[in-house]
Amino acid sequence: MLSGWTTQDIIQVSQLYSLVAQANEAQVIRTELLTAYQAFKQVVPSKSEEKQLDRQFKASSGYSIYKTMQAAQATTAVKFSVTQ
């Protein structure tokens, strides 16, 4: 996964992880999360890699990128939280 990643790639993936955690713990601006996910998809275009990273992130944080993004796409609120 990290093989071949640039520093910028790692920053983009880390930013998504941070926003996913924030969306699960408090609130996040929906457009920021969606933009971070688009940047993440530029780094990780493969569905299988995305699923693997999601499993690893969920194992370490308890939060699912997939479920968080589903919640973000299902709302039109400017700020949202997965728990709301």
From TrEMBL:
<protein>
    <submittedName>
        <fullName>Uncharacterized protein</fullName>
    </submittedName>
</protein>
<dbReference type="InterPro" id="IPR007920">
    <property type="entry name" value="UPF0223"/>
</dbReference>
<dbReference type="InterPro" id="IPR023324">
    <property type="entry name" value="BH2638-like_sf"/>
</dbReference>
<dbReference type="Pfam" id="PF05256">
    <property type="entry name" value="UPF0223"/>
</dbReference>
